[in-house]
Amino acid sequence: MSLDLRNSTLVLVGHGSTLNAQSAASVRLQADAIRSRGVFGQVLEAYWKQEPSFAAALRSAWHRDVFVVPFFVSEGYFTTQVIPRELGLPLIDGMAGPGSHEVGRHRVHYGAPVGTHPSMTGVIASRARQVVERHPSPEGRPGPGECSLFVAGHGTSNSENSRRAIEDHVAVLRGQGLFHDVHAVFMEESPRIEEVPDMAGVANVVVVPFFLSNGLHSQEDIPVMLGASADVVSARVRAGLHAWENPTCVRGRWTWYAGAVGDEPGLADVILRRVTERLAV
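The chain above was modelled as a monomer; its predicted structure follows.
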């Protein structure tokens, strides 16, 4: 299939939130980055928990061909059930995966989520290197090989796919041998984020939250799980500061905490790769 993307619409769909205005910031940032490239004739954003909704965005699409990319970290309930249902895609046993379908006046090309793309492994590594380079410890800037890297996710017993994306990226990072040791940790499953100091193989620890938005989990919950005072974290966030003071010594280990990966510049390329996959079918 060959399409002129200047005659196509891209819809970038995220979760959104009615409680945290920052939840949609990463979606807007990446949508703006893609608009600036002039690849598509139209770039729209849509959300589950705020406006515009998925269905409203589709109604607003100018072009017949509409590419929809889920701005989510893993395949699961939202990407296989909620988004396809709201877009009017045909469902099999209540679910739908990537594919192209006729929906009213549109031909909707539904892609896989951003977070499961193999190139996200490089985004995680970049995030880890950047936070250490920007915030040296009193002992200097340790190289990646002198750091234990932890990729933190939500995790849930309701869906094994929730942790699979993180574990896949962690396996690749381990194989690359760039960091001393690499681990996946979770908010609601074992191994837990609170165990980071015990799991680290060296005295320098870097934690990258594998979340696409700087919402409550990445901004406040995880820093507290790592050992920060809840009151201090809340005060820093209210003051417009990063929740975690980089680096902080936690039980004898210098610990760096990066922001959620959703505002990484390279994500615009990952989104376009998801579109390219649909073009190749």
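The radius of gyration is 19 Å.
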